[in-house]
Amino acid sequence: MTQAIRKRTHSLPKDDAKPKDERCRLVVAWGQLVSPVGPIRVAFSEQGVVWVRFAEEEEATGLDEQVAAGCRFREAWQRRTLELLERYFSGEMTALDEIPVDYRGLSVFRRRVMEACRAIPSGSTATYRQLAEAVGHPKAARAVGGVMRTNPVPLIVPCHRVIRCDGNLGGYSGPGGVVLKRRLLELESLGRCRSETDSYVCKRFNQDFRGLRR
User: Fold this and answer.
1) Ranges 1-5, 144-148, 172-176, most confident
2) Which of 31, 33, 50, 57 is a good FRET partner for 99, with 20 to 30 A between their CA atoms?
3) Quick one: which of 179, 188, 165, 171 has its CA closest to 213?
4) Bridge partners, residue 40, by sequence
5) 90: domain range?
């Protein structure tokens, strides 16, 4: 895994992330797409993606109120974000690398962990301990797990690529839990779909994703 974050200190971090409400106030637009795992809601600020929500989560947050209010797209890149998500589920595994993320309202530690997670290439995995080492807190694997568990932008910040040191996949907050996590990793291991055979395999995985919703 590429260590995109420079090491600084070995003291345990304090996650001083600000309340969710503050990040919700950044939202100026939202969009929704139908994916193999069900509807996915995406909330945007002027600078990047603020939230990604699987429809089954249905959390009572300020974001849901923003979505209900019917915010509209303001910039072309916001609409393109949904297109890139669709391309990801079609087998273009690097499509999400282009999507900007707005980290405002998050603690310094949380942002560093999320940036290090985003540096994990598609088709690869890293452990919670490796992420902790990458951000300069080698003893903070548990804290890193907490950041991954509450990741506000799953898929774009690929927390599904982070596993335990013993090779166990750990948990996942998306619909289907660890089953979806395993499916995503398997799909990414195929790489970009190019041949007819690859396209067939990606279609099969899409059918498997849909099976998680039943």
Assistant:
1) 144-148
2) 57
3) 179
4) 33, 54
5) 20-98
5 within some domain = no
Vertex 117 angle, CA 85 and 87, to 5°? 15
CA distance 91 to 195: 11
Q: Is 117 a catalytic residue?
A: no
Packing angle between helix 196-211 and helix 178-189, nearest 10 degrees?
A: 170
* Catalytic residue of the set 24, 117, 159, 193: 159
pLDDT exceeds 60 at position 193: no
| Phi, psi of 156, rounded to the nearest 5 degrees | -70, -45
Do 33 and 89 belong together in one domain? yes
For residue 29, the surrounding DSSP H or E stretch is strand 29-35
Same structural domain, 116 and 147: yes
Domain boundary among 48, 69, 98: 98
pLDDT value of residue 197: 43
Mark which of 48, 68, 98 sits at the end of a domain: 98
Crossing angle, helix 141-149 and helix 108-118, to 10 degrees?
80
Q: What is the dihedral of CA 99, 105, 110, 116, to 10 degrees?
A: 20
14 inside domain: no
